[in-house]
Structures are given as structure tokens and as C-alpha cells.
Amino acid sequence: MQRPQLIFEYSPALLLICALAAAGYAFLLYQKKGPWSALVNKILFGVRAVAVFIIAALLVSPIIKQLQNTTEKATYIIAVDNSKSLTEVRDSAQLQSLQNNLNQLSEELSGQDYKVERWNLEGKTDAENISFNGQSTNLTGLLNDIKSEYEGRNLGGVLLVSDGIYNLGMSPAFANYNFDINTIGIGDTLPKTDISLTSVLYNRLSYQGNKFPVIAQIQQRGFDNEQVKVSISKGGATVATEVVSLKPNNQIQEVKFLIEAKDSGYQRYIVSVERKDGELTYQNNASNAYVEVVEGKELIAIVAAAPHPDIKALKSAIETNANYELEQFVLSNYKDAERLKNNVKKFDLVILHQLPNYNKIGADFLQKLEASKTATLTINGPQTDIRTFSRENDVLNIRTTPGEYDNITAIFNPGFSSFKLSDDLQAAFDQFPPLYVPFGKYEIQPEAEVLLYQRVGNINSGYPLLIVKASADTKKAIMMGPGIWKWKLTDYANFGNNDRFDELVVKLVQYLSTKDDKRKFRVYPTKNEYLDNESIVFETEIYNDLFERVYNNKIDLTLVNEEGEEFKYDYITSESNSQYIINGLPEGVYKYNAVTVINGNTERAAGELLIKNVQLESINLTADFNLLRKVSDQTGGSFFKETEFDQLTDQLTSKAAQGIIHTNEEYLPFINLKLILILIIVFISFEWFMRKYNGSY
Predict the structure, then answer these.
(1) Cα torsion at 131, 135, 139, 141 (round to 10°)?
(2) Which one of 236, 384, 412, 501 is least enclosed by Cβ atoms within 10 Å?
């Protein structure tokens, strides 16, 4: 630390005036001799003068300036690839020897004044014993996390301990790092005799009764041209099999199957390759394919008075979701009108474009539609008979002057709560071109909620552009103007895709076509699919007769796997926590059943979830030391084999760690010093005591 400097906000010459003022004030007070000796009088004079001087000097605002130097020790990071692939090629004794060497290196570096930290694929860790249980390897992610954590700090270097195999993220050889990376290669670089099912390609969703493709990709080494059986089984029974001749030179070979989706729900199919004697491991000879089989798609109909570009825009957005089947009827086309008239299907949602119209096209269908309580999305336009529409709907009343329209733009209603729209979509409404809507007075009916308002120029008119209403038996939405096809084109022009437009249409369709859940008891996992190293989180909702949330109910939860094995749990909900977390379940398809009692009645909730095991670590077991050498060469580090651990230790400990000195400039006003306050109190207290002791006040 450097010697402090004294600086002033005002001229230091003012201190002389403070001293003269303090001496003058003390002289006036003690010019007359009191009931004490001359010596005491002088002491009291001096004490009062010093106390007043200190107080007056504070008004000049003296400040102490000092430079504080601190030394940041260099940090050295030992980053270990703790993935499962290492346990496939190294026994426990070899792994323990590796851990002992790393612990010894850590002690040596600490003796060289390094601050040593341990990292693994999950991040920073305090554990000295390494658990090689990582389900995947992302070396670039590990090094990027270190780079981000130590940006602008004193990082002495990184030791990466790995076999050089990665299966997530990009290669670390293509990333840039501003610190030395030494690497230790562990594992075996010699390819082993093995047959590997490298990946299984399939559709995650299929519909009951349909057939879906499954493609098994195989690689092998050491079994050129030998025949193996590739099979698919479900529930212990083989559903498909094929015998193939293995291609030489480690080529990727595809075996294609077509499987019928018979049962609904999550289905597990085991894809396996016949085992051969002499393989390195059998862990990569089989893989699971999980397919969700649904009973049927939701049926959506677009019924339009006449052709319009909006129809194609809506159709393209809806078809981005595989859960929907779409039918289209343009009633000005005689064949479409007849097809709709003879239709016997039950639609989950009907989109009406400029209906009812002045020509009464499709009037019979509209009457049947209203009676069926089917959800509807109505898009009005110049062909819409507004008076008939206003009279027959229970969402919105409109009083308009025929032939008068406004060009308006959309404003998102931030208070809309029926479903969420992304921030990108909310911002995009400002850029979407205007629509052509009827001019008039709008009256919104109770329970209706506005999603988009009309904006005329820069003014929010308060009138709805897009409005929704959910009643006890159906849901409805109304769009007051056509032309949303222009929104689709603008979305692509601005962003190179239609993500925002598609989101608006699909979420609106999902909201309208989904039936309200009126159950008082709901238990469901926060997502349908989990990895076997993830926590499974169940959310619980319990309602009273007024559909108000209630708590403190005991829940009995049972999970059953495919073999019929049961896992039982129980918990009590609370206002602060309505979730229940389960860990440690093996992979598979689980059916769950939850039971509770509400007002003396037993309520149940049921469903299913999927736990998957990602077998990335067993696909490739051949170490890649060339990758590690390249990373070290690019960053100024060195590559070592595991047998060269002593050379690594000698190199790292041959030079002491270099600390970095950080200088911090501090300004400390005198008025903030506790010592000054203490001095003032001491002087004044001493003066008061002396005056009291010598018989005065």
C-alpha cells in the first residue's frame, strides 16, 4: 500500500482560519480565570481550541486518498472428462490410480502458490474422487464454461483429462481459448473389434393404425461381410427382423423397418444387433426407440365463402403441427359445398372465413354448427353480413355504417391471460401491415377477452381486433378483418421464417380446439419425457366446488413400469409447494395413478410418462489423442499420455505461479472516520470533567 495523500475540496488555507477561529473562541471562553489554577485554565483552553478546530476543519472537507494493492493468486484448473465411456475401457484400479495422480498434482500445484480448482462435465466441483457416470460428453461446453467463469481473471492454465471422445457440441479444436490447455490422453487409441448400433432413427409420434419407419444405423470393425440379425422387439415379442451382411471398412450401414402402431400411449421398441464373440462390449448392441402412439388427430375445418389468400396462410401454419388434420371447403365451389353438405365428421374446430355472408351461402351449415357447440374462429371481411353476425354471436355486438372501413394495425393486450405469446411475437405485431376492418361501435360481451386491439394511426381505439371467449360448453374467437396472409409474408421478409405467424395461428387453434379440464384433482409430470439422470417432477392441483385452489391434501401416488413393478409414494400439498420430486427410477414407460379425498369423495388422476437412457457413451470407445494434441498445440499447452504423468508434474511445477497485482484507489472523507468522532467526544468529555471536578459547569 502506498503512503496516503491528504487532499481538500476547498483551499487548505482555510485551515488557518479554522485555527484562528478556534483559538479566538477558546480565548473568549477562558480569558477570565475560573475557580481553578492557571495550569488547568491553559489545559482547558487548549482542549477547547483543539476540539473546535477539528469540528471547523471538517467543514473544509479534507479527504484521504490511498492506493490499495491486492495480489490475485493464479488459479489452475484440473478439468476431468467424467463420462461413462472411460469405465468401458479402464478398470477400477486404473481409474483409482488416475485419481491418486491428480490429487498428488493438486498438492504440488498448491505448493507452487496456485489456487487449484476441480471441474468436470457438470461444472465446478469440490469432490476429489471422480464418479465416471456422465451420460454424454461436451468438451467444448466444459472449456467454454471455464472461459466464461475466468474472463478477466488470473487463470494460470487448464489441464484437460480426457479420452478425446465427444458426442455433444462441436469439436474443441474449432474453438478459441485465451489460456494454456495441457491435455492428458487416457484410454486406448487402437480400434477394437466391435459391432455398434450407432443410432436409431424414428418418428417420435405416430397415429394408431398407421405404420412408422425405424432405421437402425450400424458400424463394425473386425467382422467384415459377416451376417448378423437385426431385430425389433416390444414387450418381449419380436415384431420385425432382418439378416444383413456387415459392410467392411467401418462403413455406416442402414437397416430399415416399417412397424405398425397398434397400441396407444408411449411404446418402447428395443432395436438390437446380434452379439458376436470377441466384441469389445455388448453395451452398444441395443438401443431403445420410444414412440408416442395417439388415437387420432384433431380435425380442423376451414370453411370460406370464397377463395382468399388467408386460407392458404392458415393452412400452412396449422399443418406445422402434426396433431392436426385439416379439411378445406370453399363454398363458392359447388363440389366443396356439396362435400360439406354431406359431411358426417365431427370437427374439433371450424374456421369461418367471411361467413355468414350476404348471399346466405352455407346458412344451413352455420345453423347446425351453432347447435353442435363446436369451437369456431370467425374471420370477418367485406363479404360478411355484419348485422346477421352481430345478432347471432354471443361474443361481440357491432353497430356499423355499411361500406365504411378503417385500415388498422394490431396492438397486443398485455393483460391477456388465456394463453401466452412469445416476446418476439408481441413485438412483431408493431411491424405487421394494417388490416381492413368495419368502422363502427363495438360492444364486448361478458367473459370475452381481447387478445389484439385496433390501432388507428398511433392511437389505441380500444376496439377489439382479435377477441376470444370461453363459455361452459364451447370456445369462440373472432378476427374483425381479413388479410392476415400479409402478416405471414411480412414475418418471412423480416426474419427469414414464419415462426411468429405460425405461433399465433397454432396457439389460437390449440386454445380453441382443446376441451377445458373441469376435474377437481389433477396430477401430472411437468414434462412427458425425462432422462434417467433427471429428477421427475409431478405437479398437483386440487380445487373446491368453486374451482379455488386448496392445499394440505394427502396424495397417494403409484407408478407402474412395463414389468408390472410398482413404486409407491405419498405426500401432502402446501401453498408454498405443490410439487413432488422423484429420483432414481430406471428407464422405461411408467403409468401413474394418484388418489386423494376431497370433501369425502375419492378423486383419481392417471397418465403415463417416459424415462429414457441416452446411450451416447457406448457408441464410440476409441480414444482420440489427435484431438487433444490439436487443442494443446493451438493454446500453447502440451499433450501427455497417462504414462507421462511425472513429466507433466515436472513441467507444471517448474515455475511458480504468477500473481496479478490489482490497485484500487480509495477516497476517504475525514468526516466518515470514526476516530475523528471519538477524538471530539474525548476532548469535549475531558473538558466537561475538568470543569466539574474543579467546581464549575
Answers:
(1) -110
(2) 236
CA dist 487 and 105 (Å) reads 62
**Residue ranges, the chain, pLDDT below 70:** 1-3, 516-517, 546, 614-619, 696-697
Q: What gap in Å lies between CA 74 and CA 59, rounded to an integer?
A: 45
Q: What is the largest CA-CA distance in the chain?
A: 127
Q: State how far the Cα of 638 lies from the Cα of 180, in Å rounded to an integer.
A: 9
- Pairing status of strand 298-304 against strand 324-330: parallel
Distance of alpha carbon 656 from alpha carbon 113, whole angstroms? 7
Q: Quote helix, strand, coil % in the chain, to nearest 5.
A: 30, 35, 35
d(CA 593, CA 572): 16
pLDDT 10s digits, 595-620: 999 888 899 999 888 888 766 666 67
Domains and CATH numbers, the chain: 5-69+666-693 (no CATH), 74-188+623-653 (3.40.50.410), 194-294 (2.60.40.10), 298-513 (3.40.50.880), 521-612 (2.60.40.10)
Predicted confidence (pLDDT) per residue in 406-461, tens digit: 899 999 999 998 888 989 999 999 999 999 899 888 999 888 999 999 998 888 88
Whole-prediction pTM? 0.51
Is the alpha carbon torsion for 682, 685, 688, 689 positive or negative? negative
pLDDT of residue 614: 67
Query: What is the rounded distance in angstroms from the CA atom of residue 591 to the CA atom of residue 594?
Result: 10
Burial class (CB in 10 A: 0-12, 13-18, 19+), 523: buried
Amino acid at 181: I
| Strands 205-207 and 194-202, bridge-based pairing | unpaired
Q: Which three cell numbers stand for residue 339?
A: 362435400
Q: Give CA–CA dist 488/501, Å, rounded.
A: 6
Peptide bond preceding 669 in cis form (omega within 30 of 0): no
Picking from 488, 483, 514, the residue whose alpha carbon sits closest to that of residue 353 is: 483
Q: How many residues does the chain have?
A: 697
